[in-house]
């Protein structure tokens, strides 16, 4: 099949097709499959290739309750946009067990991306969320992502935008920039608020940036009420393991049973700024063989590090705080680190 376009469809299955180069005159390019203003559809076991997007979802009427599974989704290498794409007015979308070449660009609500193989052949994030309205629920689970840019990136575009729940769980990510990134996109995106971020049991390696990066751009603000990092490994080869600079008086961050490391000499393992409460328990904070600086926490009400192993840090106990009135270091093991 040379083209596939579905419009105002309310129920059905698209399966076992090959679709490519459906011409889209408004953009002067082509899609593999375009689903517009439709609901209750399954797309499976197909090969979908386009000049701009392999699959694109969106329309004037809501696109809702769509399952995309067991497909190969591709676009032209030089398109520099996601092979899988959603526009506004999209919700309750599940994208699972696909092979996606050249990444995902998405916006919407109640979005689930799970068990996908996502490979990038150009400088583009594995999954980028370009959010310009309130978001209730976003999940990245058990994906395998290889990218010369970000592994996954949530960007906000408008002021006072709220994200209620963001779950990143069980993913394997190898990327040049942050494996898990959250940031405002532009100066108009002030007062972004994220209520709950859950980062669990991921294996993340970043070659140039921090494995996890949550921070505002110049002139913007981003507040996080609650962030939980539980299990997994988060390693940077040439930067901090985690770097987060959020709005003053943001909420709490808890880190449990997690390995966080840097391989860059004299670098921080973590730099966390403006969280009210920081609690680290049962974790491994690892510097490089030729010693990192320390794990740095700034402008918090309290910092607790307990039952953890801190190795290969040049500074005493591997922890340094600035403007933190309450600091507790309890029952930790120090390896090649002064204590």
Automatic annotation (TrEMBL):
Protein name, as recorded: Gp49 pectin lyase-like domain-containing protein
SUPFAM superfamilies xrefs: Pectin lyase-like (SSF51126)
Residue span(s) of domain Gp49 pectin lyase-like: 29-119
Source species of the chain: Aneurinibacillus danicus
Pfam families: Gp49_Pectate_lyase_like
Family annotation (Gene3D superfamilies): Single-stranded right-handed beta-helix, Pectin lyase-like
InterPro entries on file: Gp49_pectate_lyase-like, PbH1, Pectin_lyas_fold, Pectin_lyase_fold/virulence
Native organism taxonomy: Bacteria, Bacillati, Bacillota, Bacilli, Bacillales
